[in-house]
Known about the structure:
This protein has helices spanning 15-41, 45-70, 129-141, and strands spanning 2-4, 8-12, 73-77, 80-84, 89-93, 97-103, 106-111, 116-119. By secondary structure, it is α+β, with helices and mostly antiparallel strands.
Amino acid sequence: MREQGGDFVVWRVHPRLMLWAGVFATLAALGVVSAWLAWLFDRSGERAVHAGVVTALIAVISLIGRLLLFRPRVELRGETVVIVNPLATHRLRREDIVAVTDGMHGAVFHRRDGFKTQAVALGEASAGIRGGRLAEVRSMLGL
Length: 143
């Protein structure tokens, strides 16, 4: 997904994956609500434990989903490229990027100093990096 503001452009994980994450979150919330409603009608210890376990499991899965789907992005802000991965954020100056290629876990930004930075938000899992998204990133960077 690409968002464009005044002087910045943001690429996020593909919208299809975001849609499925929303569907899963809705179903998970319904599961938690139904577990607690079942406990309300039958206040047994087993129902309370079941509702607590379901709530904890959904909380952990939601945290992982947030890290893997909603946090990753690539931002082009003026002369800086900000790459936000699940556990790290990288800031690269535009003139330090010499190439952008397709990698196993996302687009790879090759830097002038020989190091590489992976962008998970532009990964194969986010559908379409080999097509338009990689070309779009390259053209915005002037590569």
